[in-house]
Q: What sequence folds into this?
């Protein structure tokens, strides 16, 4: 993390420009006071819920965290738990497996491609303004401990769990692909 501390932050707190965004004032205040905020998106129709952090890059030069496909409250809890680990000194990186995040299951972190940022993470994009925004997806397994990229993974996992390390055009058909096409 120490080399990242020298990396510039282009967020609205570090580089204010023009009039403040009234919708972002509460978020900016929360990030200043607590180091991050977790944004949750409620399940709708066939699209599962998701949550993501805003402020980890600003406060700790750590990638933001995204959790998708579980109930929104669960996604928010996982994102908040990982953010607290970052605050306490944990370093998050793509490919890292962690056993202390989701009870009874390991999770793996994967890098989120930039094309997905405006589709799914609008508050983070508005806060930072300047891509690229480093973000890691928390990947969780099916009940048999298979991850979505493994051939043995259940069909239900494929419909719930997006693969944000793939370009939207290469993503398997799912509700997540439909969201990308709407943008």
A:
């Amino acid at each position: 993390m120490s080399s990242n501390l020298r990396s510039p932050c282009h967020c609205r707190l570090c580089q204010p420009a023009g009039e403040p965004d009234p919708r972002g004032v509460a978020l900016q205040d929360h990030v200043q006071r607590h180091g991050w905020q977790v944004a949750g998106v409620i399940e709708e129709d066939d699209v599962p819920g998701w949550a993501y952090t805003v402020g980890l890059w600003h406060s700790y030069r750590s990638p933001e965290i995204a959790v998708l496909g579980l109930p929104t409250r669960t996604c928010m809890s996982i994102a908040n738990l990982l953010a607290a680990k970052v605050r306490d000194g944990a370093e998050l990186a793509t490919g890292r497996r962690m056993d202390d995040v989701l009870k009874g299951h390991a999770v793996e972190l994967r890098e989120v491609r930039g094309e997905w940022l405006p589709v799914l993470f609008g508050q983070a994009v508005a806060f930072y303004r300047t891509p690229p925004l480093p973000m890691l997806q928390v990947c969780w397994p099916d009940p048999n401990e298979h991850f979505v990229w493994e051939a043995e993974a259940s069909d239900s996992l494929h419909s719930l769990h997006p693969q944000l390390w793939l370009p939207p055009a290469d993503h398997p058909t799912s509700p997540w692909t439909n969201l990308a096409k709407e943008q």
Summary: The beta strands are 37-41, 50-54, 64-68, 97-102, 105-111, 135-139.
